[in-house]
Design goal:
Number of helices: 6
Structural class: alpha+beta
Helix content: 40-55%
CATH superfamily of one domain: OmpA-like domain
CATH architecture of one domain: 2-Layer Sandwich
Distance between the termini: 83 Å
Order of helices and strands: HHHEHEHEHE
Largest sheet: 4 strands, mixed
Strand content: 5-15%
Number of strands: 4
Strand order of the largest sheet: 1-4-2-3
Low-confidence stretches: 10-51
Shape: globular
Amino acid sequence: MSRLSSLTPLLYGVMLIGCSTLAISPSEPMPQQSLESTAAPDTPLDAPSTRDTDSVALEEVNSIYFAKGAKRIDPAGQNKLRQHAARLKENPAQVVTLAGYTDDLGSDSYNLAISDQRIEAVAKLLRTYGVPKKQIHPLRRYSVGRGESMPDCRTKECRQLMRRVELIYGIR
């Protein structure tokens, strides 16, 4: 028997011993992070976080809602836009981008057209309230909502929330 053939079993044994030291022992469980550990004590797991609540509130303040098929801004929307106009006039370095969203009813071309008309109505009213045109940036042809953020939206209330123009603030 050659020297190499007698060493082969020894080499296999060393390799097997080396591999077994790399394996995780069943007596040492893998560390797991439970969902409960991320929540504060006495907080239900399905309760919204403060951050989620804040972003929903901000979206509400920064959104002008429209009735089905409407292009006119109602009195509540007009009051919101007066406040936004005051903010923009006090801060000339700020700009606002207007993003239009529609519900999931109607054709793509109809939703694009009504979204653009709603954006234009908001921009026009902001200008009427004294906001310089250079601070207003309409976001066109990108803004068909068609329920992208709420794909399973089938109720009247849900669709109402989809029909909006959102004001997104930035600095120029």
